[in-house]
Write a structure and sequence with these properties.
By secondary structure, the chain is of the alpha/beta class.
Amino acid sequence: MHIPATILEKVNEWLTPTFDEATHASIIEMMTSSPKELEESFYKNLEFGTGGMRGIMGVGTNRINKYTLGKNTQGLSDYILKSFPNEQTKIVIAYDCRHNSDTLAKVVADVFSANGIKVYLFSALRPTPILSFALKYLNCHAGIVLTASHNPPEYNGYKVYWQDGGQIVPPQDEEIIKVIEDLNYSEIKFTPNESLIEYIDTDVDQAFINSSIENASFNTPKAAKEDLKIVFTSLHGTSITLVPEMLAKAGYTNVNIVPEQEVPDGNFPTVKSPNPEEPEALTMALALAEKVNADIVIGTDPDADRLGVAVRNSEGKLTLLNGNQTMVIMTAFLLEQWKRANKFKGNEFIGTTIVSTPMMLELAAAYGVECKVGLTGFKWIAKMIKDFPNQKFVGGGEESFGFMVGDAVRDKDAIAATLLVCEIAAQAKAAESTLYQELLNLYVDHGYFKEHLISITKKGIEGANEIKQMMIDLRNNPLKEINGQLVICVEDYQNSTVLNLLSNEKEPLDIPKSDVLIYYTEDGTKICARPSGTEPKIKFYFSVNTTLDAIENVTTVEAELDAKIKAVIADMKLN
């Protein structure tokens, strides 16, 4: 197989004495036996996407290893030192249960310390949300977490947070990336200053647990908490380090943990994917819930920023809720609690994203608060809090099973969200209702919104080109009609325009650029196309809605909306 000259140039650099002998041996092995793998490993540099940088672990510029992370860290060190001159700069680092996360975290700590930056390094694996909290709690300038969220076992990743506790966003991320790209690998300072590395654990843990309880507790009676029967699974991830202790401290004593998934394990041996968005991931938890007759099932992903929830429906059968549904339930509950406590001052807002349910806008209108809508990813919700310091953030989320309660954590936080959803379920049960019943009540009050997501995987170089072409076709030749309904407008977030297909007029779109297209039809259907920022996928998000006049009609109405979504997918030839 012919290896392109541009790739050979990178390969030759990695065969210089700057890189260790093990790296040299791996490259030579690939050159002789796996030229395709060599090309995949070097054809590009890993990029920062929606949730930071993620990639397969291995040798090369397109892989997660000590050199790619070392280069990131050296560039970030240079940027931090330039941004905060004449200060003792400080950074906090956390890592999850993935293979090599602990050793890679130490490499990152070494490089920061070698540059004179004080490092707080968690002594063992921790959930991602505690990193955001710890950053502000320890008054740090930035933070890093080593995680690949729910990606397959061969992945790892690197997320960068700034002083406010939120992930970096444009233009700052681009400035940092430029500094990184201008570096040579030989400039990385790998030799640590151990005196600048301090290990942290229980003090920060307890502060985080106390903060979670303070933000996500709403006067639920002790008896109601004890009466709620919970099944919880950490899916072999990090939430096991904090959630059981937090629930116990908050008064929830009836908690059943899935034993087979309790021990952190980067192989995730009992699931195909450790992602609570995938119903199969909660199979063992649902089985345990039936065995103990639980009221609610909660599962978190490996880095504990997403949560999946299952509750009993009107027939008493355990039903998995999607991320839009849990977001709506939690947001509505928070808004109602704020209203009852007379906390509204006229400057409150909730936050969500462009691919999430439009029902969030309906909730905001009903309670007289603003709903800010940002690009996909919680860094944009964190940015809302930072950009509007005179407004008060109530809560918010996105369709991909993430939620944030208040602003103590500036990222999606399955820890506090777990407690919040237990509060809602416990109060509902005490009132002889259920969490599912509360959701149906919201549909009657605000309209029945039904969402669906399709992810199409296209791996490697060829896959990336296919995804690119799909977006070009949808952008340059917009569909005029979908499922018999006229398309009335197309929002193009890459070109920052809104095209009105009825008048053929364009208007500017005032939101940061992103490779996203959203189609709206005359009957209120919303269809979004978006390449994933962290996985080799293109995602299509569908939202349809109608009125629900009475709960007893929910089955009929839901079937109508399901049929509409299927018809839209078929018409777009996506099935």
